[in-house]
C-alpha cells in the first residue's frame, strides 16, 4: 500500500523533502513505518522519542494501523509563538 | 466560537480586540509575540515559521475553545507563517472576560499552551548559520530562513 509521509522542521532536511511516498506492507503500524525509516537512514533513529504523530490531520500514536493513501505526519516538538 | 487563523499576512492586534469586544466583557487582555533581533546571545538576521497547517488550525481552535469554556472567555488567536521581519508580530491573542483576572489567566494559558502544543516550527538565521528550533533544541540546517 502507498503511504504519504510529511516531515517537518529538521526531519524535512533528513527526509530530503517535506513530502514523500512510501510503499509499506498492508496493515503496517506507524511504529513499523518509523523502524523502516530508521533502517533506511540512521538520522531517523530514535525519532519516536521526540516526534509527535499525526494521521490524516489528526493526532495519532505508534500503534495506529495504516491504510492505503494515509497521510502520516512526523512532528518534532513545537516552537511556535 | 473563538476566532482563529493562520495567515501569511501581517497581524493587527486591534482587529483581534474588535472581534472579542462585547457588552458582556469588562476586561480585555492581549498578547503580541513579536520577532526579536536576538536569540541565545546571537543577532537574528531572519526568521520564518512553518506549520502542519490543517492540524495546527484544528489545534488552535481546540485550545481557544477550551479557554473560552474554562475561563468563560471570548478568544481570538492568529499566528503568522512564512518569513516575518524583525519587529513584526508572529502571534497575536485577544481575550475578553467579565472580569480582569480570568482574562489575564486565559491569555497566559493560551500562549503557553500554544507554544507547547500547536504544530508550528521556527527557523532562525544568525550570522553563523540557520537553525530549526524544536522545543528547547536548536538543530542546524542549510535551509535558510
Task: Label this structure with key terms.
heterodimer; A: about 80 residues; alpha+beta; Ubiquitin-like (UB roll); 5-stranded mixed sheet; 5 strands; about 30% strand; B: about 140 residues; Aldehyde Oxidoreductase, domain 3; 6-stranded antiparallel sheet; 4-stranded mixed sheet; 3 helices; about 45% strand; elongated
Structure description:
The complex is a heterodimer of chains A (81) and B (145). By secondary structure, chain A is of the alpha+beta class. In chain A, 26% of the residues lie in helices and 28% in strands. The radius of gyration of chain A is 12 Å and the shape is globular. The mean pLDDT of chain A is 97. Chain B has one domain: Molybdopterin biosynthesis MoaE subunit (Aldehyde Oxidoreductase, domain 3, Alpha-Beta Complex). Chain B is 31% helix and 43% strand. In chain B, the strands form two sheets. In chain B, strands 3, 4, 6, 8, 9 and 10 form a six-stranded antiparallel sheet that branches. In chain B, strand 8 and strand 9 form a beta hairpin. The longest helix of chain B has 19 residues. Classes of the chains: A alpha+beta (81), B alpha+beta (145). At the A-B interface, helix 1 of A face strand 4, helix 2, helix 3, strand 8 and strand 9 of B.
List the helices and strands and how they pair.
The complex is a heterodimer of chains A (81) and B (145).
Chain A (H helix, E strand, L loop, with lengths): L1 E6 L2 H6 L3 E5 L6 H11 L6 H4 L1 E4 L2 E3 L10 E5 L6
Chain B lengths: L2 E5 L5 H8 L6 E8 L3 E2 L2 E10 L1 H19 L1 E8 L1 E2 L5 E9 L2 H18 L2 E7 L2 E6 L2 E5 L4
Parallel strand pairs in B: 1-5
Antiparallel strand pairs in B: 2-7, 3-4, 4-6, 4-8, 5-7, 8-9, 9-10
Helix pairs in contact in B: 2-3
Amino acid at each position: 500500500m502507498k503511504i504519504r509521509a510529511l516531515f517537518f522542521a529538521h526531519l524535512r532536511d533528513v527526509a530530503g523533502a517535506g513530502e514523500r511516498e512510501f510503499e509499506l506492507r498492508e496493515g503496517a503500524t506507524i511504529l513499523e513505518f518509523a523502524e523502516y525509516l530508521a533502517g533506511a537512514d540512521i538520522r531517523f533513529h530514535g525519532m519516536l522519542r521526540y516526534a509527535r504523530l499525526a494521521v490524516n490531520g489528526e493526532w495519532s500514536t505508534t500503534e495506529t494501523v495504516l491504510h492505503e493513501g494515509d497521510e502520516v505526519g512526523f512532528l518534532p516538538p513545537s516552537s511556535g509563538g | 466560537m473563538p476566532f482563529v487563523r493562520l495567515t501569511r499576512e501581517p497581524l493587527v492586534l486591534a482587529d483581534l480586540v474588535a472581534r472579542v469586544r462585547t457588552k458582556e466583557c469588562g476586561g480585555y487582555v492581549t498578547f503580541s509575540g513579536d520577532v526579536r533581533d536576538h536569540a541565545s546571545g546571537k543577532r537574528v538576521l531572519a526568521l520564518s515559521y512553518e506549520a502542519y497547517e490543517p492540524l495546527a488550525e484544528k489545534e488552535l481552535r481546540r485550545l481557544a475553545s477550551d479557554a473560552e469554556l474554562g475561563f468563560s472567555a471570548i478568544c481570538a488567536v492568529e499566528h503568522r507563517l512564512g518569513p516575518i521581519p524583525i519587529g513584526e508580530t508572529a502571534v497575536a491573542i485577544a481575550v475578553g472576560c467579565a472580569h480582569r483576572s480570568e482574562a489575564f489567566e486565559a491569555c497566559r494559558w493560551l500562549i503557553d499552551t500554544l507554544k507547547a502544543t500547536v504544530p508550528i516550527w521556527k527557523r532562525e538565521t544568525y550570522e553563523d548559520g540557520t537553525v530549526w528550533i524544536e522545543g528547547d533544541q536548536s538543530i542546524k540546517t542549510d535551509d535558510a530562513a
